[in-house]
Amino acid sequence: MLVWDDTATLVALLVAPMAAALVAATIGPRFPVFTSRLGSVAAGAGFLLAAALTAGAARGEEATAATGVFAVAADRLAVAALLLIFGVSTVAQEFAVRYLAGDPRAWWFTGGASLLTAASAVMVTATTLVGIAAGWTTAGIALCLLLGTYWHLPSARDGVRRAGLAFLIGDGALWVAVGLINVRTGTVDLADLPAARLEGALAPVVAVLIVVAALSRSAQLPFHRWLPATLAAPTPVSALLHAGVVNAGGILLIRLSPLPSPALAAGLLVVAGTTTMVYGAAVMLVKPDIKGALAYSTMAQMGFMILTCGLGLWAATVIHLVAHGFYKATLFLSSGSAIARHRRSTALPAAPQQTGGRRRFSLLTAAVLPLAALYAATELFPTWTHTHAAEQALLLFAWVTGAAATWGWLQRRPDIAGALTAGAVLLPAAVGYVALISAATTFLTPALPDTTAAPSAVWVTVIAAVLLLGALASLRWSPAAAALRRAVYTHALSAGTIHPTTAGALR
Fold it and tell me: Tell me, what's the pLDDT at 371?
């Protein structure tokens, strides 16, 4: 009698997208509609299986399966990542059934998306260095195949070249790190790494190699140019890329966190994440096309994720990458509708610009209301501890997001009634946000390493971010800074321009 247990669930979850990719590669050109539906169903089944594993993980159970160096396990971190991977894959592939209907390359997308899903699932569940690196490299290959869906377009070939070069550097660094660890410690099992001796000059070398791999996959400086060069790919590919693949850098850093982490590696992550976050946000604000703006938005968001990794705020990293993944997939898949709405709105009379007292009222209200709502939520929520550094970092992120949303609303209703309406919406939203963050942190904590950031480091980062936002606001509204504003705009627009490449060199 066959008994279906958590191990069978985990194996089925990994096999389903692999089988869909194999079917697409063999009969896809002859049966494109069937192949597309099969890929969507396989991803949806994987999501349901991931939800079942999540329920088991919440009860303290952990599914495992092993075949040599390719052992896998579904702990709390893995199931959170699996929900993101299969959730985004399901939505993107179901969207592609209609989006690519009648397209002769629809089967190519299904095969590549299924292979990418399977490889990503292996990467987040593998419990050995070889398994992680194999899933990592296979996911990169699958993404390059997807980026080359319309290979006849020069812009598509350019995107594949740029991504391929960045991945070649990052994957090479990761495999070298795996080899060095195996030679020195004699093990590739993650569970043995804390007890293994990795000391001397080798520890910082391995740490920096892993940082290079993470930065390359997450499109961080100096590997940032490949991401905005991939916009020639079909919209479902962009959704998979921006909502899933770029998150792999954060997952890799968390999974390899048991290794010694010298200050040099953490410093590189903080510097690269902060610089990319500022650069991506600046270029995003000046990009005239919606997909280009979304690409640089992703770059900035990944900068925040890498920054939290550098500070050791692992719970904040996981919560942010999951939330950003679903959010960015929605934005890319709805970009066509957004353009249509924008065209309709441009035909309407423009709203009058705020001046003087109303602008000051809107700015002050947009800053204070979300802060007050979050403070009230943390006081009302009974289990909020105020002490976890990751929760504090996410509160800052929520405040900035709430301030931006409130400012946008007050552009339409710059009066007391508008402020009261915003407050009525912000308070329950803040309570729900605090409850969600607290529950997610409690769920993830057993599977995450201890937070390595000192409270002083977190608050220094918070204060620096607030000062930077204040400086940008002053530059945005100060009449005396008009010349500087034009110069910043010009430089940001130039920095965000991707020049075509040749097969032999990247410019």
Answer: 81
